[in-house]
């Protein structure tokens, strides 16, 4: 087991998240008299951009009764999925000048999120608010020491590294940090990348090339990276298994206000997203790879009028319009053949 005192020098901020939160919101208990099988596996969920636009904040003010802000009702629709995971990761996008309300960190924590990538322009107050709420963060740092510190928490029986980066992405630098985290004892390495072309559903050439380089890298026969999570595109993008590793090119915006696309038009795709859910099983031999034994995506919609994140598979009773949006998100996610590699749509 890795302890908090073990540190390695990294060029990127690395946060290894999960652990203690599993005790607070782990899997539902089995029926009485039926002990849960101890497989050693853990489940990780990851969702896309959370943007504190003005209309989002105003909705939280309304939900708080006009005094303060309450983001918990906004996220209640997806909380059952998030809270049952052993490790739940989100992405905060604060690079457009929007102020980050501390209550948003509290809402994320109450929903069950353990950590967030902050590889945009997150400020020190944002990181302070996440710390107070108990939500770990990767990608931004307040000090050089923090940028060079590996923090490790548990996800079930595993130590999971969460790296996050943006800007001019260099495969060599990302891989150096991934290998350093592995050398420090991480069982699973997850990398969040702020990349791609906004408003483009198909991953661009840069995404595809970087995904290929990162997933092809191995040390002693073991992949250096176990899962790639993409943000920034503002629309859902496909999932794809590349060199045996799942790449989620773009999760979309989980929460965002009225948004205009690259043509200056309001774009409903900005409120469509997915939540990835992956079950990792322990290796058959010591030092081997933790394998993904189940891969799923949950289609989501941020209902901008109601100010609610909607699990589209659980809202189908609301009618044909909801089903059409669900099917559209599904088609985008599966556009690069992920179904043939076992990706399924979950609830």
UniProtKB/TrEMBL annotation:
Pfam families: PGA_cap. SUPFAM superfamilies: Metallo-dependent phosphatases (SSF56300). InterPro entries: Capsule_synth_CapA, CW_Biosynth-Accessory, Metallo-depent_PP-like. PROSITE patterns: PROKAR_LIPOPROTEIN. Residues 43-258 form the Capsule synthesis protein CapA domain. It comes from the Bacteria. Keywords: Signal. Residues 1-20 form the signal peptide. SMART domains: PGA_cap. Belongs to the CapA family. This is Poly-gamma-glutamate synthesis protein (Capsule biosynthesis protein). The lineage of its organism: Bacteria, Bacillati, Actinomycetota, Actinomycetes, Kitasatosporales.
């Amino acid at each position: 087991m890795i302890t908090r005192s073990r540190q390695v020098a990294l060029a990127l901020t690395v946060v290894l998240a999960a652990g203690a939160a599993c005790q607070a919101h782990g899997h539902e208990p089995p029926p009485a008299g039926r002990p849960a099988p101890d497989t050693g596996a853990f489940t990780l969920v990851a969702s896309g951009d959370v943007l504190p636009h003005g209309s989002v904040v105003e909705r939280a003010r309304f939900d708080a009764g006009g005094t303060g802000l309450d983001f918990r009702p906004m996220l209640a629709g997806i909380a059952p999925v998030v809270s049952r995971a052993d490790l739940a990761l989100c992405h905060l996008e604060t690079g457009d000048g929007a102020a980050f309300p501390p209550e948003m960190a509290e809402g994320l924590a109450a929903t069950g999120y353990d950590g967030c990538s902050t590889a945009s322009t997150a400020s020190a107050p944002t990181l302070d608010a996440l710390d107070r709420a108990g939500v770990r963060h990767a990608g931004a740092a307040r000090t050089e020491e923090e940028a060079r510190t590996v923090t490790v928490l548990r996800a079930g029986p595993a130590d999971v590294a969460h790296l996050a980066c943006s800007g001019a992405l260099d495969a060599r630098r990302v891989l150096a940090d991934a290998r350093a985290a592995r050398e420090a004892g991480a069982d699973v390495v997850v990398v969040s990348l702020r990349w791609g072309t906004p408003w483009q559903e198909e991953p661009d050439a840069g995404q595809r090339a970087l995904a290929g380089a990162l997933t092809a890298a191995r040390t002693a026969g073991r992949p250096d990276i176990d899962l790639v999570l993409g943000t920034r595109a503002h629309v859902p993008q496909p999932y794809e298994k590349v060199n045996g590793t799942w790449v989620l090119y773009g999760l979309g915006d989980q929460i965002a206000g009225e948004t205009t696309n690259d043509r200056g038009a309001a774009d409903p795709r900005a409120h469509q997203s997915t939540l990835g859910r992956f079950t990792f099983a322990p290796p058959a031999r010591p030092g081997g790879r933790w394998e993904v034994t189940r891969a799923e995506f949950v289609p989501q919609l941020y209902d901008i009028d109601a100010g609610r994140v909607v699990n589209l598979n659980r809202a189908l009773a609301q009618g044909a319009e909801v089903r059409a949006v669900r099917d559209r998100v599904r088609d985008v996610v599966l556009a690069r053949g992920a179904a043939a590699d076992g990706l399924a749509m979950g609830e």
